[in-house]
Amino acid sequence: MTNKNPRFINSLLKKPVDATPIWIMRQAGRYLPEYRASRQKAGNFLTLCKTPELACEVTLQPLQRFDLDAAILFSDILTIPDAMGQDLYFKEGEGPGFNKVIRSKKDVDQLLSPDPESELKYVMDAVRLIHHELDNKVPLIGFAGSPWTLSTYMIEGGATKTFQQTKSMMFNEPDVLHLLLEKLSQSVVQYLIAQIEAGVEAVMIFDTWGGILNPQDYREFSLKYMSLIVDKIKKTATCKQVPIILFTKGGGHWVKDIVGSGCDAIGVDWTVNLSDIKKQVGDKVALQGNLDPCVLYASPEVIQQKAGEILEQFGHGSGHVFNLGHGVHPDMNPEHIAALVDAVHELSRKYHL
Amino acid sequence: MTNKNPRFINSLLKKPVDATPIWIMRQAGRYLPEYRASRQKAGNFLTLCKTPELACEVTLQPLQRFDLDAAILFSDILTIPDAMGQDLYFKEGEGPGFNKVIRSKKDVDQLLSPDPESELKYVMDAVRLIHHELDNKVPLIGFAGSPWTLSTYMIEGGATKTFQQTKSMMFNEPDVLHLLLEKLSQSVVQYLIAQIEAGVEAVMIFDTWGGILNPQDYREFSLKYMSLIVDKIKKTATCKQVPIILFTKGGGHWVKDIVGSGCDAIGVDWTVNLSDIKKQVGDKVALQGNLDPCVLYASPEVIQQKAGEILEQFGHGSGHVFNLGHGVHPDMNPEHIAALVDAVHELSRKYHL
């Protein structure tokens, strides 16, 4: 059962490694022609997520091209609100939407508490299938959205720029929002535990929209619930060894608070200097990040140089998982990803001697 | 010539005031029905900017409703690239666009060096007219975009989410980008000096997109050029007394660097705690901000409470100009702005005893 590539898990646990591991947010995605073919075969994005064989297929695609140190389950953070009864859809070119939105206590009360092995069985089946196919070549990462981030989509009814409805609820009816966040936290806990029991070897919580809060609201409406989730997972016998990564986009300056959640690693975007962040967290957690994704628009030579700068900022020792500060863009060149992956492995060896 | 309302300028200069001054980013804007009427009269946004009488009319509208402590020239940051020869247009509901975009050294070389009193005379005429109409009731703020922020629009050809073209140039051809930023800096300096000579009493540089850079790139591609602009304005005899505010959205954690520019005040968005930021900058500069604009979606009672929290974070003494952390949204209720303005004046008096 031991994984043949221990770099990723060992780095998350701050154990020695031979080179810095790398995986890439949205590594299975539209920038790959084979992904676009799978998606076309599926007909639409949601079918791709809901068909375990196709989710497995696209999860493995980037590993066939690049020497990545981890796979990440192909899915979407909105599977949870969908299973809670909001009826998710994706319109081509428009992003996600829900047929039911959350605007009141009554709406929150009506949300279901999904059983991951029934309403979200398609996800667990995908995990089992991917885990089998990976054959312990590299570890598999499971994930969920943070309660705060999920709530923004559930309340707005899709993506938003102004967060009008969510923040109206936060400021005018904080109790209703807290009720929703508690309910979501329970669903996320069960969902992540089920993913772990189905075979994922690390989990990541994506708090894509935590960074649009002020520091006080971040602690009250986002971090509090992520901490609760970490706590419950760590208290579950089958899960307590599994590393947990928290990633709040735009939250790099709040790492001292995030450390208090009990997570094993913190993801940071490119707007912070990794050396500063390492000083702030000390030996308490590993760090994941943080190359500006747009560096992938540059030439392979520049990519190597910029990757080297990030490695140098983290410096010697374990506890660094290389990643972009955000996902790959659809118009990026796969060959540039290859250049990055190879550069990280090559240039990082000297920091692990 | 002395202004009847000295709160805003005195706060920028950290001199004593009776209450904390407040003005609001995009205070002249779509949330006001009278603004929408003026815009309809103009036919389109660009005509509104380019017709001094209409620009004056909309600049004064919020002052007729609210007890604001400053007026801000109604204009757009893209007047400069337009005057440099890029041929700006606004399509209804689509935002700005340029008929010519900047992609190469040749494109940069072909940019014109506009004379503010000819190619941008409509702005200076608006300043003179507004200054006359204001009759020193409150000070008038002039503004420009930061060279970095302007460059993103000029290179992308409009608004962007990924900054693909700009960052490609930054990583692949930094020298070309630096050439563009230098040329822009010269135009911004001349533009702001001309505004000051036409009657504005403070200037603000909007660095809307500085926060999407990593800390090192921010210093090299954005802050460096803003510092150069501050330096040149401060060395101009007619301008050296005029306070300068720098605002990098998402740059609140870089205030220690921003202080080094020699500016008088730093604007910060709502993702930082004003008390922390005040500790970092000490007595060196004033601070402007930083209420989450979405608080305006809440009830007047909540608005009062949240305004009180920001005032308390800044605490006693001068050097605070109250503002939102970003502009008013078009769907906000003007009555909520009135509640905020009154709350700030009322609740701040105790910090100035």
Largest β sheet strand count, sense and barrel closure of chain A: 7 strands, parallel
Q: What is the N-to-C succession of helices and strands of chain A? A: HHHHEHEEHHEHHHEHEHEHEHEH
Query: Quick one: how many beta strands of chain A?
Result: 9
Q: What is the terminal-to-terminal distance of chain A?
A: 27 Å
User: Can you count the helices of chain A?
Assistant: 15
Average pLDDT taken over every residue of chain A: 97
Greatest contact between two chains:
A-B, 31 and 31 residues
- Principal-axes shape call of chain A: globular
Rounded to an integer in angstroms, the radius of gyration calculated over CA atoms of chain A is 19 Å
TL;DR of this structure?
Chain A is of the alpha/beta class and 353 residues long. Chain A is 48% helix and 12% strand.
Secondary structure elements and pairings:
Two copies of one chain form a homodimer.
Chain A: H1 7-12, H2 33-42, H3 45-50, H4 52-65, E1 71-72, H5 79-86, E2 88-91, E3 95-98, H6 105-109, H7 121-134, E4 140-145, H8 147-156, H9 164-172, H10 174-198, E5 202-207, H11 215-234, E6 244-248, H12 255-259, E7 265-267, H13 274-281, E8 286-291, H14 300-314, E9 320-324, H15 334-348
Parallel strand pairs in A: 1-4, 4-5, 5-6, 6-7, 7-8, 8-9
Antiparallel strand pairs in A: 2-3
Helix pairs in contact in A: 2-4, 4-7, 8-10, 9-10, 10-11, 13-14, 14-15
Features:
homodimer, 353 residues, alpha/beta, TIM Barrel, 15 helices
Give an overview in words.
Two copies of one chain form a homodimer. Chain A has one domain (7-352): TIM Barrel. In chain A, the strands form two sheets. A seven-stranded parallel β-sheet of chain A has the order 1-4-5-6-7-8-9. A two-stranded antiparallel ribbon of chain A has the order 2-3. Chain A contains 15 helices and nine strands. In chain A, 54% of the residues are buried. Chain A has helices spanning 7-12, 33-42, 45-50, 52-65, 79-86, 105-109, 121-134, 147-156, 164-172, 174-198, 215-234, 255-259, 274-281, 300-314, 334-348; strands at 71-72, 88-91, 95-98, 140-145, 202-207, 244-248, 265-267, 286-291, 320-324. In chain A, helix 14 links the parallel strand 8 (286-291) and strand 9. Chain A binds chain B through residues 162-164, 167-168, 171-172, 211-217, 250, 253, 270-273, 292, 294-295, 297-299, 302, 306, 309, 329, 331, and chain B through 162-164, 167-168, 171-172, 211-217, 250, 253, 270-273, 292, 294-295, 297-299, 302, 306, 309, 329, 331.
